[in-house]
From TrEMBL:
Domain of life (superkingdom): Bacteria
UniProt protein name: Peptidase
Any one Pfam family match given in the protein's UniProt record, by short name: SapC
Species this protein is from: Croceicoccus pelagius
Database matches in InterPro entries: SapC (IPR010836)
Length: 238
């Protein structure tokens, strides 16, 4: 159960957080949220898929780590086996908080019940004088990027919807041992529709800064083959 609190040096002077990857530290997940302003980094390692909320119809993007719930093929023996760690994972247990006024000043919040909080083994958040440590400064920068990405996502997904650029995606994988794994409930970008956009549409997407994340998401799909190879290797050593 979460227990969010505004981070401040008086209350949290001695707070420590474990930074290393770990299955028991919240990293044993099939996917995590990715925002368009990090697609360039995400696509270097992970497939970028899109998930639709069936109640609201809203979309979000995810970096895919595995083929089933609780599977992360990039987490091996306590090591993160990829060049990039998506923002939504790397900022845990911190988050951005605001007042009821969405345009209010952003604050750094922390989930005091998160498993990464460990006063014995963790890295300090504040130094002895109550100043932010380099670790906290790095987290704050990442929180800012993630918050900016969330805010920009609404326009990005509205553009994808306007030009009907998303399509349902189902994948069935046959592993080397004959076992089958299915990936359902996701969407991907329709490359043919993107190719068919006229100059006006492409110009609008470019002016809004959306063409780059679109191309990055398309390029990321080549990593599905890599993910299958990781799955086969994992099963072979199971």
């Amino acid at each position: 159960m979460s227990q969010h609190a505004v981070l401040d040096p008086a209350t949290h002077r001695d707070l420590r957080v474990r930074m290393e990857p770990g299955a028991d530290l919240g990293d044993q997940v099939m996917s995590c949220i990715a925002v368009p302003n990090e697609f360039r980094q995400v696509q270097a390692d992970f497939p970028i898929l899109f998930h639709k909320n069936q109640e609201t119809g809203a979309f979000n993007a995810v970096a895919l780590f595995g083929f089933e719930n609780g599977e992360n093929l990039f987490l091996e023996n306590g090591k993160w086996n990829a060049g990039y760690r998506p923002l939504a994972l790397s900022i845990q247990p911190f988050l951005i908080g605001r007042s009821r006024d969405e345009d209010g000043v952003a604050q750094v919040h922390i989930d005091m019940e998160h498993v990464r909080i460990d006063d014995a083994e963790g890295v300090r958040v504040f130094d002895e004088s109550g100043q932010a440590t380099p670790y906290l400064e790095d987290v704050a920068e990442k929180l800012g990027r993630l918050d900016a990405g969330y805010r920009a996502s609404e326009g990005f997904f509205a553009a994808l919807k306007r030009w009907d650029l998303l399509e349902p995606f189902t994948l069935e994988v046959t592993l080397n041992d004959g076992a089958k794994r299915s990936l359902v409930g996701f969407h991907i970008l329709n490359e043919d529709r993107i190719r068919g956009l006229d100059g006006a549409a492409l110009g609008e997407l470019h002016a809004a800064g959306y063409l780059m994340p679109i191309f990055m998401a398309l390029a990321s799909l080549s990593h599905i083959t890599d993910l299958v190879a990781r799955k086969n290797a994992r099963e072979a050593h199971a």
